[in-house]
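#lab-general

N.A. 3:47 PM
ok so I finally got the sequence cleaned up, no stray characters, all 257 residues accounted for. can someone with queue access submit it? mine expired

B.Y. 3:52 PM
send it over

N.A. 3:53 PM
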Amino acid sequence: MEMSSRGGAGTTAKQPMPALAGTDVIVLAGGLGSRIRVVLGDRPKILAPVAGRPFLDHLLRVLARYRARKVVLSLGHLADRVTAYLAGVSPALPVETVIEDTPLGTAGAIGFARGAVTSDPVLVLNGDTWVEIDFVAMLAAHCRWPDTLATIACVRVPDAGRFGRVELDDDGVLSRFCEKEPGPGTPGLVNAGAYLLSAKLMDDLARDHARSLERDVFPRLEPGAIRGFVADGRGFIDIGTPESYALAATVMAATKP
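B.Y. 4:20 PM
back already:
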């Protein structure tokens, strides 16, 4: 494992949001970005320019305003571009990087980064997704249930088939994931790409070497171990396709806190 760190003392103009209680954040940014390569070329998705700044910069500024303790970027493909960018800026909060030699999948990447985080729980974000979430309320909901191993941010969208649906029971317990559906989908809740994972689950991921959270890890957890937190979702966008990336600046400007 390759690890480096970059401290940050940057400030933002707005007043800080309520604290995330010293929570560490892992941002998953090691994907190949195959669908959007025609637009970005050899630029990694996490550095995709949105409204004149890299997407990473937007994420870091929001997390700094929530007073997250630090961010760990889980990198792989084109990692050198990200580390070179970080070397020339002063991030708004401390940033470390861990770099995969080969793609590990979502679960594998989180397990790989386990040694770089110490909080309980850890906030995990997809590095190509923007969504309006009250992270403090999500953290409070996660801590309200001591047996919860994972809390997943969910948003309601008009076409859930593109993403795959998430089904919750009346108590907010995740009952099942539904696979993506071909053709026009129906409205429903989807996984918004933000998770709070307990230290116990983080330890399991580091040992198990599973690849996918949704397919390999979550289905085998005990009933009730995963809960959903329904976020507002007005700003939900995945910049992983040329079509959605073209809308990113407009969506993010309308919802940025």
